[in-house]
Specification:
Elements lengths: L8 H22 L1 H17 L6 H31 L5 H30 L1
Helix pairs in contact: 1-2, 2-3, 3-4
GO molecular function, one term: ATP binding
Family: Belongs to the bacterial diacylglycerol kinase family.
Protein name: Diacylglycerol kinase
Length: 121
């Protein structure tokens, strides 16, 4: 068993929630892209409740928006880990960061495709 593993049971859940909140706080304060996505979500998610769409369509619209936040958190985590290892330019570091960026671009494309398909379809 790993010496880095923490508590079990409710204590573990509470610790995990605290770590998650710390991660959200770090992303919000340190990542402009995350703040922009939070703003986009703050507009699009409430807007979805005023549109004449089915519950399933609304769920897809909201899910696509939340997925982009998840992808941005993972992208930021990859970038932080790469920068922690070394700030030196390296082709593998560039690839990792570019792939994270591509994942975010794909998530934003998904938002556009889902919303356009539902609203224009």
């Amino acid at each position: 068993m790993s010496p880095f593993k923490g508590q079990t049971g409710l204590k573990r859940v509470l610790n995990a929630a605290g770590y998650s909140l710390d991660g959200l706080r770090a992303a919000f304060t340190g990542e402009a892209a995350f703040r922009q996505l939070v703003l986009l979500n703050a507009i699009l998610i409430p807007l979805s409740f005023f549109l004449d769409v089915s519950r399933g369509e609304r769920a897809l619209m909201i899910g696509a928006c939340l997925l982009a936040l998840i992808v941005e958190l993972l992208n930021s985590a990859v970038e932080a880990a790469i920068d922690r290892i070394s700030l030196e330019r390296h082709p593998l570091s560039k690839n990792a960061k570019d792939m994270g960026s591509a994942a975010q671009f794909t998530a934003l494309t998904l938002i556009t495709a889902v919303w356009a398909t539902i609203l224009l379809g």
